[in-house]
Amino acid sequence: MAPKEVLDLHICIIGAGMGGLATALALAKQGFRHIEVFESASTLGFVGAGIQLAPNMARILDKLGAWSDIEREAVDLKDTSIRRTRLSIIAAQTTTDNQTEGSTDQELGHVDLQYIRATYDYPHMVGHRSSLAGSIYNACKREKAVNFIFATEASDMKSFGPNPSFTALPRKSGGEPYPVTCDVLFAADGVKSLVRDQMLRLHNVSAKIVDTGQAAYRIMLRREDMANDPELLELIDRESVTRWIGEKRHIIAYPVSNKTIYNMSTVQPDLHFAAAPSATYTTKGSKPQMMEVFGDFCPKVRRMLDLVPDGEVCEWKLRVHEPLPFWVVQQTALVGDACHPTLPHLAQGAAQAIEDGAVIAVVLAKLPEVSPEAINKALRVYETVRMARAYTLVELAAASGRAMHLGEGAAKEERDRQFAALKGGKGPVPDKWADADVQRMIYGQDVMKIAEEEFETIYAKL
Ligand SMILES: Cc1cc2nc3c(=O)[nH]c(=O)nc-3n(C[C@H](O)[C@H](O)[C@H](O)COP(=O)(O)OP(=O)(O)OC[C@H]3O[C@@H](n4cnc5c(N)ncnc54)[C@H](O)[C@@H]3O)c2cc1C
After folding, report:
1. 46/142 same-domain check
2. Which of 145, 388, 395, 397 has its CA 20 to 30 A from that of 403?
3. Does residue 35 lie in a domain region?
4. Is pLDDT above 60 for 90?
5. From the alpha carbon of 45, which atom of ligand 1 is closest?
6. CB 50 within 8 A of CB 129
7. What is the distance in A from the centroid of ligand 1 to the CA of 413?
8. Whose CA is nearest to atom 35 of ligand 1?
9. Does residue 98 register a pLDDT over 50?
């Protein structure tokens, strides 16, 4: 355990998303005693959506004592099935029945995922976001060191160090703004990060939010609504991730919450946010429009989309950010989507935010002394351990999206050949999260161990 004066550092965290929660819990587990988390929402504000729980996330949460509750409700994946929505040229040549374009639910590729638990010590599971965030939050609440300040927005960064400070704005009426000063500040304030913007401005860096041109519908179907349709029941009963892919669009779906809910997340060209102000990230979608966008997907998919009640279609803008040249200024560091937002195609955004929090706690606990210089160097060890890995995965997620969204042509034929070759044995999987080499790179790395082992060498060089 770190010396007393290190553990007495006053640490503030802005944002109680996956990154902020994991950072707070990891710090408390390392023995830090004064951790304050400022969250602008009045509660955790759970998004009704599923989330993939990859082994690299599970390994960390298990070390932090938050995994068993999540695992209890999550679904342990056996496999993934990638399905085409239209007959491709190859399929059309080999298909004997009279399927028309758009009617097919034919399997393009199939990948077994059961080897993952034996290889990486943790399974690849899928769960509900509220279960993931709620379990980390509950674990934080069991730690006396962590204090949550909800309904309070951090605004107006006054200083990034040596004593970072900002103004806290309570949202309740009559709440007076007050200054907050700490020894170390973590900005886990999401893709729209105010702290990042102010940091970049200070250094005349103009890295921008990138419009991906993609948007997503996030849908949760109740088991009872699928109960009268044997084909849909079969989907919710399988421990499987199914991905239906088509030109510029796909749908990923899996059961969560002990198979009581079927989670669907779509990706389609962004037609509705393009004209909206950049602050807009979610909007109420139109069901007829959703049905039209996926009008050429197979009937099974369309029946599921049709189960979404009118008025309950929610569309998300998918935005990312240009890579940043740094994540740390003085005694302030960025965490999670604030510094490496990603497209969801690799299912690693939250996992990477959790890796950030775990590494932060390891490096701060290794501080050899309490001084602004030492804190800054420890934060830069965090940046060194994390930055290249996080940005590699951001790029890989974008590449996977490009491969899945191919239109007719040679590139798509090659992709479909790769999918088809999986039936005969091993080979590259164009849907990258299911690729064994990608999984080795992502799941096989224990970032806490790396931070432990490499801290002194990196620290000495800074
Ligand atoms: C469609 C979709 C599917 C996804 N699927 C997966 C998946 O399967 N697996 C996975 O690992 N990841 C997935 N992700 C990514 C993942 O959801 C995000 O990467 C992750 O939630 C980021 O966490 P964060 O804590 O960095 O940011 P956020 O979750 O955005 O949290 C930021 C928090 O900060 C608060 N905040 C912001 N500004 C302030 C302020 N000024 N003061 C106080 N509080 C503030 C916000 O209210 C929020 O609570 C998916 C994303 C999308 C869009």
Report:
1. yes
2. 388
3. yes
4. no
5. 49
6. yes
7. 35
8. 15
9. no
